[in-house]
Design a protein that fits this description.
Blueprint: H1 48-53, H2 59-83, H3 87-113, H4 124-133, H5 138-163, H6 169-198
Helix pairs in contact: 2-3, 2-4, 2-5, 3-6, 5-6
Length: 199
Amino acid sequence: MKTNISVALLFAGAMTLQACGSNENKATGVDSSITDTNVVDHSAYVTTDTLAADPGKDPAKFAEQAAIGGMMEVEAGKIAHEKTKNQQVKDFASMMIKDHTAAATELDAIAKRKQMSLPTMLPSTEQAHLDEMKKMSGDDFDKHYMDMMVNDHKKTVDLFKSATENTDAELGAFAKKTLKVIEGHHKLAQDINGVLKAK
């Protein structure tokens, strides 16, 4: 996902995604009565090398990437909502703004409780991408935006899947809940992109 404006506007969802109105709290399904000592706690074997290679499992890195991704989706959504003449693309952009802002708000609250710092501005490369998008129009813009949404959400799905096993339980629960929203975004982006490319 790509991003750094106000984390509050995010999933921003972080890409924040509490999008699509799926904010239901899901039970973990873990039976606390199970005390089998033969059950291996794999979290005990998470090393710094593992975290470096898999940022989804590192609390600070996951929170940072989720925040940036969410911001990017919100800002790109605002541009798309203003520029597109395609109703499907416009509706999708509105969903990105709404869902990723909701996710960003939740992520921000978690970060504050844990005294974690989140980025408040997009990286220069992401901002430059948004600036280029503002120069585009018509079908070229729509196809570029939806291609971007397919690719970004694929990466975000991978990040959040990994983060369901985050070493921080609260961030892991956030990732698990938000993952379904992001997967929905990815599927819808693929569908819309397919329609645009068929023209």
